[in-house]
Amino acid sequence: MPETGSIEIKDLTVRYRNKIALDGVSLSIPAKGIYAIIGPANSGKTTLLKSINRTIESEAGVSVKGQIFIDGRNTKRIRDIYELRRRIGMVFPLPVGLPLSIYDNVAYAPRIAGKHARSELDEIVERSLRQAALWDEVKDRLKSLGTMLSGGQQQRLTIARALSHDPEILCLDEFSIAVDPVTTMRIEDVLVELKNKMTIILVTNLVQQARRLGDLTCFMNMGKVVQVDETEKMFSDNPGNQLTYDYVHGVFG
Amino acid sequence: MCALRGPVCSFLTRLRRILRIVSERTIVSLIFLCGVSAVIFVFGIFFFVFREGAPFLRHGFDAKEFFLSPDWYPTSATNKRYGILAQLIGTGTVTLVAMLVAVPFSLGAGIFIAEFCGKKTREIMKILIELLAAIPSVVWGFIGLMVMNPLIIWLTGAPIGLNVLNAGVIVGLMSVPIIVTIAEDAIRAVPDTYIEAAEALGATRWQLVRKVILPAAKSGLLAAVLLGVGRAVGETMAVLMCTGHSINIPFDGKAPFFHVLDSVRTLTATIAAEMGEAPRLEVNADGTFPAEALHYQSLFVIGIVLFAVTFVINVTADLIVKGIRKRK
């Protein structure tokens, strides 16, 4: 069985009314490993993630052109977009605890997928929370509100939630924005552990984070892909592209 | 800066400054007056209603009879009775039917407008629903009289179509706009991030509404319903025209539920219909009250009861809404 979780993006163009957010982006994201995407604000990173799980379509005034293939399947042809979304875990910049208990937060996705057996849910919740390095902190208060946790804990809760349906692909959008450095390091450790099991797309505004974690790094600017390469090469003294060099070394951005 | 020099200039600048301060103060105090006037009016109404009803409270008032007796004979020559149980139940049943009609419709409409329809449809729907609120209540009463009345007779075979069902449907439709507007606000106040997160987890539109939006907007929706109840309790003209206006308790002891095809009378309709013919008499020379005067005053006591009911409902709704704001 071939490894699952590869993504092929072909000539993706996304417009918000008159504004171009993505301008003919083509990327080939291999299965497994961490694929880091860096770039200044407004370079289309978030739009790219939203295009992958097709949540972009529920925003008003958006037009999407181009194709995205996941494991060789064109996502536009997938009838059941909810099924598609369940295969992709998504973590947003600001932690979003749904107004539910910790347990229900994590059990939300399995439940809407039709899993209701208590023992099965218990197992999923524990596994996901362990994977997100949160289990030990919350195991005694699974019934309390998820929104009462600290920011860093909430972010790990959203990661646990994203992991609850055993996704092939995990997308993280600037997860460390609202998280303290210690928690950031813990989540980074979690990601390193997870990258053998799934494809992780890490959008980050911290170039050093991409350097620490990324197997491949993609640099985007103004809705276009500037360069994709081995992370080491991207951060070397001679990445082969002046713009990349300038951004990575903090000349602009 | 100033074309003139010396003392004239300094006088002019000073004058301008004084004028500015004076106008500033005037405007501030005017605005303050406008703000306070609402409070003054509320207390004024409260005071007036109490003053008019007070002699009845002192003289003819018997709480047990007033609230528990269905006998309302304020104009009888020999046997005056002041019992509002029938009207209380009338108001209660009409409100209940109104809410049974209005709540599902309005919450559905609120959810649809807030989450399911496009921007253009939303604007059109909102205008139409607010238009519903602009229809005068006498027109609603007319619809009840001329449309609902024959319809109910035709559908159910009841002898008359002016009853709890008729008034309930009409009042229900009348409270739809207020419930929809507030419910929609409550639903739209649910953070977009919740919706984004649930969508990314693969929730369908309906799962999103049921599991995330409704729980998050719960208190706002409750407040919307309570305000609708307040509207239904206070409605007068339409119920006066649609209930049949007869003193009757729509229970017969056997059925667990009330009869929606019975005519009733509500508290508000009683005041509206009888106020015109109840004489407002002065105190006798010996300080006692002419018995005929109690009719007028008892109507004001009904007013106090209504005031208390709507006050409690509105304050509850208000506290709930405040609770929502605080949590955010």
Can you offer a commentary on this structure?
The complex is a heterodimer of chains A (253) and B (328). In chain A, 35% of the residues lie in helices and 26% in strands. Chain A contains ten helices and ten strands. Chain A has a six-stranded mixed β-sheet with strand order 6-7-8-3-9-10, sandwiched between helices. A four-stranded antiparallel β-sheet of chain A has the order 2-1-4-5, covered by helices on one side. In chain A, helix 3 (102-112) packs parallel to helix 6 (151-163) and helix 4 (118-131) packs across helix 6 (151-163). The mean pLDDT of chain A is 87. Chain B has two domains: 6-56; 84-327, Orthogonal Bundle (MetI-like fold). Chain B contains eleven helices and two strands. Chain B has a two-stranded antiparallel sheet. The mean pLDDT of chain B is 88. The chains are: A alpha/beta (253), B mainly alpha (328). At the A-B interface, helix 2, helix 3 and helix 6 of A face helix 7 and helix 8 of B.
